[in-house]
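STRUCTURE:
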């Protein structure tokens, strides 16, 4: 006797996967409790270790006032010649009130041509956003921006 094979539609698969993912989703109240400046500092230490993070060489651009935290434009530029001997290895962005403080990491190399990235992020509330870049010589440089968010993202209940 041959086993029967049931072919499911893409829609049924996505609905089932979404239901499973919803079961693993964080409770918004629990996420708010874990989103602290201390959690952000721990995330930064996980990236930089015991190295000193200096101010400068990094330019972080975000709007100072955001109406909706669901899609906030962000760009980071680093002053670097991007040569084999002196280039940006990584750019990390951290937030102090999002459920996951390490928002994004970009890994670059000398062939990138320039150390400039742009994206959109979600912001849970009014908070500070920090960009830290790691250079090929092992040094870390940073910039930070305070952003006022009128309609928070990340913690909204569905």
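SEQUENCE:
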């Amino acid at each position: 006797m041959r086993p029967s094979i049931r072919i499911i539609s893409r829609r049924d698969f996505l609905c089932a996967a979404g239901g499973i993912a919803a079961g693993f989703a964080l409770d918004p109240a629990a996420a708010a409790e874990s989103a602290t400046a201390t959690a952000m500092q721990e995330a930064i230490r996980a990236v930089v270790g015991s190295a000193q993070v200096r101010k400068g060489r990094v330019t972080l651009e975000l709007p100072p006032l955001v109406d909706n935290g669901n899609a906030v434009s962000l760009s980071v530029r680093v002053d670097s010649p991007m040569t084999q001997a002196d280039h940006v290895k990584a750019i990390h962005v951290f937030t102090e009130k999002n459920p996951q403080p390490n928002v994004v990491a970009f890994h670059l190399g000398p062939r990138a041509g320039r150390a400039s990235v742009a994206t959109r992020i979600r912001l849970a509330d009014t908070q500070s956003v920090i960009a830290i870049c790691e250079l090929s010589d092992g040094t870390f440089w940073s910039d930070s921006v305070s952003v006022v968010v009128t309609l928070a993202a990340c913690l909204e209940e569905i």
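REMARK: Residues 10-151 form a domain with the Immunoglobulin-like fold (CATH 2.60.40.2470).
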